[in-house]
C-alpha cells in the first residue's frame, strides 16, 4: 500500500491549475505538505502518470485534502485545454479543480459594486468572449445555445451557492491565509502595494505620449511602441484623469460573477467596458474557456489590473497570492467524498451477522 506521503493517483480529488510561474508559486504556498517528487516519479503504474500525460505536477496536502497542482505550459485556451485533458487522464477521481491566478478586473460591477486591485473573483460562469464573427463594423460573438459554454454540474453549482452564502466568513479566512502566505520566506518582502497604487484611469484616457510631434502617438488612435513599453510615471499620465474611488481597503474582497475568457490580452479601457456591458462579466482572463467543459472547476482569479492601456505588472505577485489564499479558503469549505472501506474491514460484517444468527 502507498504510504501517506506517496498516495495513489486515485486518492486525489482536488486539483489546481496555474498557467504562469508566479501563479504556480503562489499556489504551492498554500500546501501544508508537498510530497517528494523523486519518490513519486520512481513509482510505476498507478502511482506515476498516464502514458500520454504531458503535464508536470506538484502533489501534496492542503488541509484535509490530497491535492495536485498541474502546471499549464503557457497562457491561453489551447494550453489550458491540453492540460485539462492530460489532468483527467492521470487523475480520474478529481471532484473539484480550481483554476487559480490573475486576471483583469471590470472596475464597476453589478449594482455599483467597486472592484479594486487585489480583489478576488470567483467565477459562476465562463463566457468565451472571442468566439464569433468579425464584421467590417465590429465583432459579434456567437451567442446561441450550441455556441455558449455549458454549466458546471450540480455539485459545483451548489458549492458556489454555499460559498456565496458565507461570503463574509470566506473573506475573513482568505485574509488570514493571505497574511500567513506572505510571511513565508519565499514571498518576502511581498506586501499589499497600497491603495495609492490602485490607479483607475478614465476608459478613454489612453496610455500614450500627449505632446508628441514625431512618433505615432501624434496620429489619431495610434500609440507608438515606446509608449506601449513605458510606465505611467515615464509618460506622465495625468492624475486629473483618474477616477475617484469610494471604497477604501487594505484587504481583498471577494466578488462572484461571470468571467470573460479569450486568447487576447485586453489593454483598452473602452474595449473592456464594451465586453463587460455586452456579456455582463466582472473580469477578463485567458484560460477558463479552455477547461470549463472538461473539468469540475471553479475559476479563482485575483484582479491585478483593469485591462486598460495603463496596466502593468506591479500587482501581479500580490494578487496571485490573494487568489491562492482565496483558493485555500474555498477548500476549507469543500467536503471530501466518502470512500469505500478497505476490503479487510468490510469482511468483518458477514462474520458479525453469522455470530448474531
Automatic annotation (TrEMBL):
GO biological process: nucleoside metabolic process
Domain named Nucleoside phosphorylase: residues: 14-320
InterPro entries named in the record: NLR-like, Nucleoside_phosphorylase_d, Nucleoside_phosphorylase_sf
GO molecular function: catalytic activity
Protein name: Nucleoside phosphorylase domain-containing protein
Superkingdom of this protein's organism: Eukaryota
Organism of origin: Aspergillus thermomutatus (Neosartorya pseudofischeri)
Amino acid at each position: 500500500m502507498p504510504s501517506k506521503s506517496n498516495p495513489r493517483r486515485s486518492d486525489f480529488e482536488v486539483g489546481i491549475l496555474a498557467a504562469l510561474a508566479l501563479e504556480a508559486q503562489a499556489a504551492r504556498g498554500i500546501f501544508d505538505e508537498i510530497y517528494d517528487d523523486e519518490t513519486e516519479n520512481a513509482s510505476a503504474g498507478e502511482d506515476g502518470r498516464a502514458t500520454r500525460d504531458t503535464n508536470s505536477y506538484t502533489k501534496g496536502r492542503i488541509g484535509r485534502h490530497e491535492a495536485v497542482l498541474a502546471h499549464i505550459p503557457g497562457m491561453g485556451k489551447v494550453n489550458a485545454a491540453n492540460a485539462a485533458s492530460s489532468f483527467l487522464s492521470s487523475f480520474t477521481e478529481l471532484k473539484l479543480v480550481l483554476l487559480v491566478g490573475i486576471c483583469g478586473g471590470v472596475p464597476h460591477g453589478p449594482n455599483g459594486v467597486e472592484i479594486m486591485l487585489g480583489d478576488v473573483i470567483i467565477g459562476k460562469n465562463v463566457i468565451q468572449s472571442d468566439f464569433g464573427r468579425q464584421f467590417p463594423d465590429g465583432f459579434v460573438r456567437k451567442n446561441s445555445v450550441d455556441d455558449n459554454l455549458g454549466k458546471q454540474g450540480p455539485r459545483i453549482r451548489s458549492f458556489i451557492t454555499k460559498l456565496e452564502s458565507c461570503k463574509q466568513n470566506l473573506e475573513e479566512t482568505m485574509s488570514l491565509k493571505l497574511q500567513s502566505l506572505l510571511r513565508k520566506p519565499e514571498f518576502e518582502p511581498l506586501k499589499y502595494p497600497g491603495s495609492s497604487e490602485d490607479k483607475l484611469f478614465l476608459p478613454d484616457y489612453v496610455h500614450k505620449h500627449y505632446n508628441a510631434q514625431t512618433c505615432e502617438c501624434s496620429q489619431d488612435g495610434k500609440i507608438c511602441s515606446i509608449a506601449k513599453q513605458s510606465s505611467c510615471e515615464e509618460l506622465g499620465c495625468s492624475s486629473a484623469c483618474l477616477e475617484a474611488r469610494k471604497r477604501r481597503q487594505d484587504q481583498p474582497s471577494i466578488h462572484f460573477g461571470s468571467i470573460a475568457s479569450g486568447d487576447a490580452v485586453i489593454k483598452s479601457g473602452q474595449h473592456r467596458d464594451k465586453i463587460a456591458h455586452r456579456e455582463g462579466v466582472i473580469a477578463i482572463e485567458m484560460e477558463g474557456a479552455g477547461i470549463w467543459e472538461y473539468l469540475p472547476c471553479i475559476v479563482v482569479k485575483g484582479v491585478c489590473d483593469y485591462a486598460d492601456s495603463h496596466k502593468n505588472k506591479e500587482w501581479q505577485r500580490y494578487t496571485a497570492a490573494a487568489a491562492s489564499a482565496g483558493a485555500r479558503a474555498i477548500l476549507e469549505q469543500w467536503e471530501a467524498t466518502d470512500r469505500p472501506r478497505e476490503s479487510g474491514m468490510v469482511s468483518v460484517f458477514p462474520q458479525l451477522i453469522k455470530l448474531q444468527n
